[in-house]
Structures are given as structure tokens and as C-alpha cells.
Amino acid sequence: MKTWLYLTADGMEALCANWPCCVWSPTGERRCLPLHEAARELHGRVVDVLLPMEMCSWLRSDPWPSRRQPRPQALAFAIEEQLSENLETLHISVGARDRQQRYPLMVTERSRFQALLALLAAQGFDVRAMHVDADLLPDDKAFAVRWFGRWLLGGALPARVSLSPRALATLKPDLPEDIHWLDEGRDREGIDEWLLSAGGHPIDLLQGEFRRRRQPLPWRGVAVAASGLLLLTWAFSEARIRFLEGETRYLYTQDEQRFRSLYPEQTRIVDLAAQFQALQSRRGQSQDTQAARLVRLTEQVIGASNVEVQRVDFREDEGWKIQLTANSFVELEQLRERGQQTGLPVTLGSASKQNNRVQATLTLENS
Asked: How many alpha carbons fall within 13 Å on the CB side of residue 18?
């Protein structure tokens, strides 16, 4: 069993060393004590931190059309309308896709989350993961669990919330009939053990910029010996490289002289191999012109999508660049997949959202 550190809802108003918390040792014993005492007791151990649901909000995205894992930024923009705050002030953590092809997200205030991590670091905690209590419930059934004087709702329910007994009494008529009720007043130890090892898929809040960094391994002596061996290897490699460079320059000079004798009109040599290959294969080049490739892209990819073309540019070394506007990131994802299905080398980049529209750059690379 993991070593859990639960920061109860009683102390979330003031982030300080006296925060009332609860510790479960690997044997399953519950101990309630202030945070600074828990720090002394757990010194040197790796802990999994559990936060109260009152500090976070749980949301779900719409069904995602692509099979590929979307970027956290795309999911954040997808739920932006459900939020009442600016995205820049929030820390959003993403969970695993569910059976409805939706992504669950846990949202908390960024500055408060930073202050919490700073408090735990100042107390000397080595935090491996950070979850939310209502998110521990397994998602195969709907659950309502009374824990630490509050009711946690979650599991198969389309919500993760914490309610007081009075609030639950108001909401109870709207809950499904097959919901499973558990009360810590009847079997506290049993519920503790079940909840902390329920086998669900809770979201780890340590993501993105807050991802846990691995501790360096204490192999200092081995590192010094390896560094010495690498230094010797580098010295031998350097001598070999210099010899090969001299031979390469000699052979290149000979090749350049032969090339100039075959193609005297080529007064400037930038890439000898590329120029020679281009001159040899010029007669057999494909008749598929750049304009024809653009027409194909327009008819088979852009024409079948609900996007607007703002600007089209062509660069010899990069290919066609088309600036688009769409209604959502989902439309852009569908456009990219349609391009791959047609076999065209298209990529999407520089996506950003302005007002109610999404802007991006579609690149058709030179084949």
C-alpha cells in the first residue's frame, strides 16, 4: 500500500504548516495530525498527496474525433466556454480518454497550486503523485461516499463533487436509483482501504510544468570512472576524425574537378552531390507541377472542410503555406486527417484562438 498524505478540507482556506491532514502508513493505519508533524514523521519517504475536491473542478471535453492524443492546450481551448476564468490563471490536468471518447480534466487555480507545492517542498515532502479524493472512486459504478464528514460523488456519474449533508439532501432526488451508498460511520477502516486502493483512473495533477523531476542517482564514483573512459574514447575518436577529414577533403577536390569538366556552365557549386543528381535526373522529372499539387489539395482536402482560406504563399524550400480560419480545433484535426488519407504531405502549425475563431497554418511540403 502507498503512503498517503491527505490534506483535509478543514485547512484549505489558509495554506500553512498547521494544515490538518491525515496519513496512512503502508499498514493502513490512519493518523490525523498537523502538516508539520506529518513532515517529521514521513521524512525520507515518497508520498502520494491527496487533495480535497473543494480545491478543484472536474470537467469533460466533448467526444474527441481523432484517435491521436490531443495536446493539453487543445483540450484547454475545447473547455474554455465551460470555465469562468482566464486559461492563463488555471492549471489544467488531463486524464485518460473514457468510453465515450471524452477526456476528463481537473482544473485548479494556478497560483494557489504553486503555493501548495512550495509549502510541501518547504516541509521536505518528496511527492510522487497528487490526486483528488472524489476522483479515486472507480468508474464502473455510480458512488456516493461519506468521508471526513462530507459526501463524495463520482465514479460512473458525470461529475466529481463534494457535498455537505444538507446539500446532498437537496440533490438526492436527482441522483440515479442504482447509486451505491457508503458511509464511513459504519466501517471507517474498510472505506479507507477501499477508497485508497479502489483501482480507478484518478488524474495526476503533477503535469506539464509541475511534472515531477526524477532525483539524480547517487552513483558519483561510477560517473567519474565513466567520464574518464569517455575522455579517452573522445581522444582516439578525435584523432580518427581528423584523419578521415583530410581524406574527405582530398576526395572532394578530385570530384569537384571532374564535375566542372562535365558541366562547365555550373560556375557555382553549393552541394556537389545534390547538383549532380539534379542534373542527371532533370529529364525524368515528374510533370506534377506545384500548381497541380495545390489544386489537388484544394479539391480533396480544403474543399471538403468547413474552413476559410485567408492567404496562400509558396516558397521553393518549404512548399505551399495556407493560412486558414476554422470554428474549432476539432475542424482543424479533421482537416489534417483528411490530408493524410489523400496521401498529401500536409502539416498543421501555429494554431491559436482569437475570439470565436481558430487560426492555423496548413503546409503542403515539397515531395
From this structure: 2
Task: List the domain boundaries for the chain.
Answer: 4-210, 291-364
- CB within 8 Å of 113: residues ≥ 6 apart: 91, 205, 210
Please give the grid coordinates belonging to residue 345.
Answer: 504531405
Strand spans (E) along the chain:
4-7, 20-24, 30-34, 46-51, 57-60, 90-94, 104-109, 126-132, 142-147, 150-155, 161-163, 180-183, 308-315, 319-326, 346-354, 357-364
The set of residues, in sequence order, having a beta carbon less than 8 Å from that of 319 and lying 6+ positions away, is 290, 345, 363, 364, 365, 366
Collapsing DSSP to helix, strand or coil, 42 comes out as coil
Model-level pTM?
A: 0.59
- Which of the four pLDDT bands, split at 50, 70 and 90, describes residue 200? confident
| pLDDT value for 281 | 62
CB 78 within 8 A of CB 101: no
Chain segment 37-69, per-residue pLDDT in tens: 999 999 888 999 999 999 999 999 999 988 888
- pLDDT confidence of residue 23: 94
CB atoms within 10 A of CB 343: 10
**Which cell numbers in the block locate residue 190?**
474498510
Helix (H), strand (E) at residue 174: none
Identity at 244, one-letter amino acid code? L
Query: Which residues, in sequence order, are CB contacts of 272 under 8 Å at separation 6+?
Result: 252, 255, 256, 259
Tens-digit pLDDT profile for residues 65-99:
888 888 888 888 888 888 878 888 999 999 999 88
CATH number of 4-210: 3.30.420.380
Q: Which CATH number fits domain 291-364: 3.30.1360.100, 3.90.980.10, 3.30.365.10, 1.10.10.10?
A: 3.30.1360.100
Q: Strand 308-315: give its sheet, edge to edge.
A: 308-315, 319-326, 357-364, 346-354
